[in-house]
Model the fold of this input.
Amino acid sequence: MIEQGRIVVNKQILPCYYCLEIFVPQIAASAHAGQFIMVTPDMGLEIFLKRPMSLNRIDREFGVISIIYKIHGKGTKAISELGEGSEIEILGPLGHGWRIVNNCRRALLIGGGSGVASLLPLAADLAAINTKIDMLIGAASVDELFCLEEFSALADVSVSTDDGSFGVHGLISRIFPDQPKYDAVYACGPRGMLKAVQQWTDKLNLPCQLSLEEKMGCGLGTCMGCVCSVKDENGDINYRRVCHDGPVFNSKEVQL
Amino acid sequence: MADLCVNIGKIALKNPLLVASGTFGYGREFADIYNLSLLGGICVKGTTLEPRQGNQPPRIVETSAGMLNSVGLQNPGVEKVIAEEISFLRQFDTAIIINIAGHSRDDYQEVAARLEGVPGIAALELNISCPNVKLGGMAFGVDCVAASEIVKVVRQVSSLPLIVKLSPNVTDICAIAAAVEEAGADAVALVNTFLGMAIDIATRKPMLANIMGGLSGPAIKPIALRMVYQVAQTVSIPVIGIGGICSAADALEFMIAGASAFEIGSVNFHNPLAAPQIILELNNWLDQNGITKITEVIGTLKADEYF
Ligand SMILES: Cc1cc2nc3c(=O)[nH]c(=O)nc-3n(C[C@H](O)[C@H](O)[C@H](O)COP(=O)(O)OP(=O)(O)OC[C@H]3O[C@@H](n4cnc5c(N)ncnc54)[C@H](O)[C@@H]3O)c2cc1C
Ligand SMILES: Cc1cc2nc3c(=O)[nH]c(=O)nc-3n(C[C@H](O)[C@H](O)[C@H](O)COP(=O)(O)O)c2cc1C
Done:
């Protein structure tokens, strides 16, 4: 659905990350963890396409959702300039989000970069059914580490940074657990990280879901722009829409 | 409330707004957003004989006031379109136009033959202009003889009105328009996308895996408008204007230049409510200007006023 929202908060939380909270009661009421919204940075025509952003918080009671975004190019720059109290057009909630597996006693959540954002509502849902959660966060540096407190309240958190400014020095694969016993692994982050997670969970035969990013035209499933390769039951490889069939895919099926 | 009805030859439209092929799928996603019966018509995604996978991603890149795409006709094939999509679209009171494409003349003919007699189709739109697949049509659309042959072979098997969708990637679009008119087209629609490209300077890689793609959106509007104007001067069959239309004012420019109807494409991504908003704005504009019928606007360019 398209909802005219009102910006409650739009503030810088880290040198290159911002948090945007929007009052969109209808979208908040129907949103699920792992879904995303399309944000219109500017109603003018110069920035032509909407920007996909994962839901970081879904507050159904107050009708508020939030996203955490990094300034990447002109669209996210324009979003960062939107004033609190102003109106913003939101399309959503979109896509198929995280699936909570039956009897999920232990789950591992792996987030890299801005991909960490979409795991927070999942952690909240899992905690609500008493799943024991381990969480791995990978960031470029301590300056790009967000939601640490929120995750720590719900999960057992380990951190790696590329420059060693916080937690373990190096890539997130360095903190993959040694004796993993999980009913589900959930990962969202850069392609390279997802590939490492996929190889690791394949080797250990752990059920895993990956959330993908791809350039999008409409976000609705009509334009066929944002496809990824997915293997079907017969072993045939087909293009599936990240916006509509995903963004969350079964790691066993998706070809990275 | 002005009269928005227009005719494209034998096709009667409740208003001149059609949604352009490839930007609206088969209407399912937009049907959740507004009532598709508001639309003058729907041009469905380019349909081929066999299912097509389309091109490798990335397939989309935003450019200034527009976008490039190299989707490459990903579609489930004509049989599935008939079984699942046309039957879905039939419930709406709007003109259903099936956009068809192929590798060869025989492909176009076969797709048209399969669609013959299927209830609920208002017209065929022959896409001889897709820039994104080798022989995806554009090869036919840049050559007068090849373009007319497609029209002739489809005409042999189809009783539906034929709209030929023209490529702007030609030296003389009027020559192609005249050729397809001569071959029996009932209308022409223009333009399809302009072949373009974009490069990531950091990696020096093309932004699209296909290297090149089709440019659409407001960035192309002045060129599309010029072509519509020229073609409308050349042919006597109805012209459907396409290219960067984002508002009623844009649409009116095309109609004044000679288009009997228009299609909106990429703006459906920019603003999914664009279609109903433009229809409303058109009506308001006509009312404000004391014009009772939209047909009174068509081809009214005062080209001589400066002399
Ligand atoms: C499902 C999904 C969820 C996302 N969630 C978040 C999030 O929670 N926080 C966050 O910071 N970022 C997120 N992203 C990435 C975010 O959409 C891009 O960073 C943003 O679109 C960049 O826009 P720009 O104008 O600043 O950059 P530009 O480079 O100027 O953008 C140009 C075009 O490329 C597209 N684009 C550029 N990078 C990406 C990308 N990584 N993925 C998809 N499209 C891209 C833009 O949307 C735009 O159409 C998500 C992407 C997807 C697909
Ligand atoms: C993502 C995308 C897919 C398209 N697919 C088709 C197609 O399958 N067949 C076709 O004839 N035109 C296709 N087009 C072209 C549009 O129908 C239209 O001619 C073009 O985008 C120009 O109009 P616009 O500037 O309003 O978008 C496509 C355009 C886009 C952006």
